[in-house]
Design brief:
3-stranded antiparallel sheet; alpha/beta; Arc Repressor Mutant, subunit A; single chain
Length: 383
């Protein structure tokens, strides 16, 4: 049974230099038509893949809060009318940018049942923020979070990025200290990945992107883990830290390899054993829905061996790791048999350990996670 829904709002007032998510400039876009068609897609997906009720709803982007007040209210109303969930029990998240949210927008979200906000802060260094194409400044982070708390939000998360161009250890330490001083219940922190079709990618190809060396990036990650632990924020996933009870239930859907609806332009979903990608361009997304057809660009029915691989490389992102019992119940085979070779090899390298009925990354394994994940691919076919 599907328990989660992701909704994508692709509109942005400004494009950040590192962002490779599906996004378009807000100005001149058919936003109202888009929102109407999102509501139609919700209805159609629920008809095709019914669910008794959702545990999580996540609205991301793009920048969902780039919508004006009327559009934001329409979106929230459409979600509440169409998706089967109880805001008092479900986790209902909106992504937002610091400086984007007026009190009126925050009150629309709060009174619509949104109970979690995720802010893209990235850094508290104004020069770095300019360098990476962010339009907000550190002061706006404090102002927006304070305003959100005044309105009534208590479950607030912020994203940070390390390994940014020109970022020093001192820069990151300062950002980390300021972030933790906010005493929020949840933090996400990711290393910069330079993706194709981004400003940073073009700069890198021209030799104009001054990235920190890998050793420094690894030191930043180690400092991140140390400081979060020191301040009572347990690491429940490679890049995520929370106070007890404030873990992102929606993101755990992905790492548990569970199914979810993907709604909106460029959204990806996992329904009926099939991974689905929607059309990305807004007009290409709208057109099939106008004709009462789902806006599907690609479908990939996931074969059994891929589902088992995904169970490993997604589940190993979690600090608790992958349950031997759950794996057996899902796939009717022992994990230690089907993945004997990578389990033995990565354990021998000190990157994996098996304890308490779980396979999990070691502390060193967290630093080399991608190498470990890669080791589980193609194994089943070759044996």
């Amino acid at each position: 049974m599907i328990k989660s829904a992701y909704l994508h709002i692709p509109f942005c007032e400004h494009i950040c230099h590192y962002c490779d998510f599906n996004k378009v400039f807000l100005q001149g876009q058919p936003v109202d038509d888009y929102l109407q068609m999102m509501k139609r897609e919700m209805v159609m997906q629920l008809s095709k893949y019914p669910t008794a009720g959702l545990d999580t709803v996540f609205v991301g982007g793009g920048t969902p809060t780039s919508l004006d007040e009327k559009q934001l209210a329409f979106l929230c109303e459409a979600i509440n009318e169409t998706l089967p969930f109880d805001p008092k029990k479900a986790e209902y998240t909106f992504e937002a940018n610091p400086g984007d949210l007026s009190r009126e927008k925050l009150e629309i979200l709060y009174h619509s049942g949104v109970n979690r906000l995720s802010f893209g802060v990235q850094s508290f260094n104004d020069e770095l923020l300019k360098r990476i194409g962010r339009t907000h400044r550190a002061l706006e982070v404090y102002e927006t979070i304070h305003l959100a708390q005044e309105v009534g939000f208590t479950n607030i998360s912020i994203d940070l990025i390390y390994g940014l161009p020109g970022q020093t250890m001192e820069d990151f330490n300062d950002t980390l200290d300021k972030a933790i001083a906010l005493q929020l219940p949840h933090y996400s922190s990711y290393s910069l990945i330079v993706e194709p079709k981004t400003v940073f990618y073009n700069q890198m190809r021209r030799g104009r992107l001054n990235l920190p060396p890998q050793e420094l990036e690894a030191s930043m990650y180690e400092r991140l883990m140390e400081e979060m632990e020191k301040h009572g924020l347990h690491q429940y996933e490679i890049s995520n830290f929370a106070r007890e009870g404030f873990e992102s239930r929606h993101n755990l859907t992905y790492w548990d390899n569970a199914e979810y609806y993907g709604i909106g332009a460029g959204a990806h979903g996992y329904t009926g054993g099939t991974r689905v990608a929607n059309h990305g361009p807004v007009k290409k997304y709208i057109a099939p829905l106008m004709a009462n057809q789902l806006p599907v660009l690609e479908e990939h029915p996931v074969p059994l061996h891929e589902r088992m691989e995904e169970e490993m490389f997604l589940g190993l992102r979690k600090t608790e790791g992958v349950s031997l019992e759950i794996f057996k119940n899902k796939f009717f085979v022992e994990m230690t048999e089907i993945f004997r070779k990578p389990l033995e090899e990565e354990s021998a390298k000190g990157l994996l350990k098996i304890e308490g009925g779980f396979v999990r990354l070691t502390e060193r394994g967290k630093l080399l996670g991608n190498e470990v994940f890669q080791s589980f691919l193609g194994v089943i076919d070759s044996e």
